[in-house]
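hey team, just a heads up i'm posting the complex here instead of the shared drive bc the drive is being weird again. everything in one block, sequence lines first with there labels, then the predicted structure for the whole assembly after. its two chains so it's a bit long, scroll down
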Amino acid sequence: MSTPAAAVRTGAALREAAVTARANWSITASAAVLAGALAAIAPLVLGGAVATDTLASGAYLALAATGLGFCVGLAGVPSLAQGAFVGTGAFAAAHMLRHTALPAEVCALVGAMAAALLGTAAGFAVRSLDPVRVAVGTWLLSWLVALSLAALPWLSGGAQGLVVPTRRLFGLNPTPLVHYELAVLLTGLCALAFVALRRGPFGLDLAAAARHRGAAAALGVPMERLRVAAFGASAFVGGLAGGLAVQLDVVADPTAYGPLLSFELLVAVLVGGATAALGPSAGVIVLGLIALAARALGSLASVSGSRFQPMLEALLLLAVLTTGGSALVPAVWDLARRFLPQREGRHVAARSGPARPAETLRAASLTKHFGPVTAVDEVSFELRPGSITALVGPNGSGKTTILRLLSGAVPADSGSIELGPNDLTTRTPAERVHAGLVRTLQARAYFRELTAREHALVGVDRTRRNGGGFRTLFSTPLFRAENEEADGRAVAALEALSLAPRAERPASELTGAEQQRLMIAAALATNPAVLLLDEPSAGAAAADLEQLIGLLASLRARGIAILLVEHNQALVHAVADDVLELEQGRIVRRTPRRRN
Amino acid sequence: MRALAAILVVLAIVASSCGSSSKSGSSKTILIGVDAPFSQSPFIGNTIANGVQLAADQVAAQDLRIGDSSYRIRVLRLDNALSPSQAVSDTRRALREHAAAIVTDGTGVDATWQLAAKEDVPICITYQGGSRLVDPEKRPNVFRIAPTDHGLAFRLAEYIVPKGLKVALLTDDSDYGQAGKAELEDAFATLSKSVAARITLPANANDLAPQVLEARRSGATALLVWARPAVLAKTIAAARSSGWNVPVFSTPAAEDPVVRQQLADHPSWVDGLTFASGRMTAELGTGPWSTFAASYETAYGPTYVGVRTREGQRVTAPPDYAMYSYDFVNVLAAALQFAKGTDRKEVLAALNEVSAHGANGDQRGFNERSHEGVVDDDVYFARYRDMTFRPVSDDPLSSTLPVIAETQTQ
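-- predicted structure starts here --
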């Protein structure tokens, strides 16, 4: 492509982006811009009341807290290691500044990269742990970093810290005011990135995984990879804050990055609002007010205010957690919304995705042992396109285990699984979903606060090509174009399960039967060749059952192969083309019921 | 509503009077920032600040006149919490408020001296003794009035070695201990035959018996402990509880009330503990010190150690570290008068020219080549007996010093 042609295309893309931004501009965006402007002029407004270097330190703290939002807000993972990442960035940058002639910004970036490396490693270590274990594990990492700094004077500079030479920052004299404005700018950019990622596939997948890991895994969400990425991003921002703050402080202080800092950052995020882009910054402001209150208390008791500060912070966190109260920014936003005109929902037309070739699933000699128990024993069958195969049997006969083997939730001890020409036997669940094999869970497993449309989008995300983190962050033309298509396909999936009118309702507000259908819609949105349904009629009323029968028939008519694990004989009789009876992990009877 | 308005007016008046005005009526104000670990080491922090405040009050009482103006000194307490970055923040605040000088325990001086140097503000260290903290050439605005680690180490070596003792050098793994370790290595470099062992004490360990046992097995006949007060107490407890009545030598850390408090259940274990410190009296006798100590006690009351003698008398701690910060304020006042004004550059230069009578009777002052207010020869030795200490008689300097009263009958 010639340079002028590229320039013309770039210009057109930018114009289109601007039009889209204007069309989507909301009162939230105006409020955020106002908050940013107020933050930028704070040193002028506050005058001598608060020192600019104190404001700048606070702004870097806000940057680190906003970074922590990637972990806590997006991934729902309570990381207590952000202080360690800030410290890593600070000391890496300090050593670069002391031992190289690199520009100050580059040194800060090196600090951020070092922190990102540690964060990625930490994320990898805790990628599959539950939130409590993540909190404990990251808390230990905080201690490890703090103790390492205390034990290694050559690294930390000992009691005097590591003095950092001052260097110009983006060509400017690095005064506290320059640091403050830079910190505010970076915090704003970080908050924008948070919003972009939250709205995109990355955020939606993480939100789903945070709310129901099993259901998200069944839909092929690569939770562990996303968690590692969230940790890495969080640590990068924390490290950047540390790498710049250390230049403001002119010393890398080994006592400043202990577990208490990690705790304070988490408190800031939880109090301000983990799911709101500006929540962490608001939380940092609250912590600043707490410091003032602690100082006042300290002067009343004739001791240092620093003795009261952690206590007040802990009390505030307890209050927020135990009273179930909303965090600051979401609470304010909920209040404001009552007085603001509601925006009309955008109408999105249903779109069909690319046709997937009809393929037969072949399971051969599948076997699974759990200790001495043989749960599945040499099971073989085929699922033909446009057919419904029912898998029936008493409890404990191995029905759900077969679904788990097929979906990849547990590996088979022996046997093979092929979908068309593809051998899926050793593939991960996410790879199987990508290949066209998707499963729903037995229980009413859904993503509580996500809307029906977002549920379907989680499914659609599995088929996206241009929904990666980079494209999401910069909202590239390809990303935007694919977004529209994804929205249309989500609507189509909801329509197929008669849920389109409920698209904008949170899943928790749907009926039990609707929630079951919603997860089928999400699975359908992955554009599957094979659908594994685990007791979709559980808890359904008679009317719901009739509707379900019709819907399953329509899915069969689309050419999808369905494996139905079901106790409800009426449903089996109504829709099954073949019935496989299981006993003690073996197929004991095959009954063809209908000829296609 | 009217009550609220009245409160606001009162607050506004109070706030305006709290501002750092440089002029109040006909007198002007000179601000001295005291950056010390008030929250982490309150004994040290308060001792330093009290010394500054006492001198400030006395200067005000004597009417400090420079030219036609009368000056009073205001003290700004800043808590560095032993954190270098907090020390930087405190220094910035002191500079914003136009402090004429900063008195510190030494925390964060590596980072803060440059900030202060840009504005020609002197920093005086009155507690930490690290050698590299003070360097008249590289850090022309950093001064110290406190015994140096170097001086303590060499005095300890020259006191212990002639006794024919084989000494185990015990240093803890804190920064204080590690700095001491380096100085002891230097001091004992040519005296290796006198060193039985070099052992590191884990500062956070509850029981130091293994380290003390290692020292005993090395053939040591004396312990030289350079560690934080709590670690020193644990070391003594480990030695004495095993029945090892070995002589123990230490640094000014032994003066800290914590040592005696932790050994209060076994007062006899403290007996014989010998330490090096800066002398409280000079050739002029006890007069200057007694005057200073009485003024200090009048202003702040006695500093009780929290233990009693065998006869039931309450033990008090002499304010020797307050003496150093007190002395610096007097040297600063002399420099202000020498400079005939408050021009910072000139005051900083004047600090190299003037001296003042110290609280112990010594002349305190600096010059262009030395910013140390306590010379190494001023280090004396004291030994505990019955929870109080007195100068030793087997050291030429110490033997000439009088005993300072440390008890109160109650």
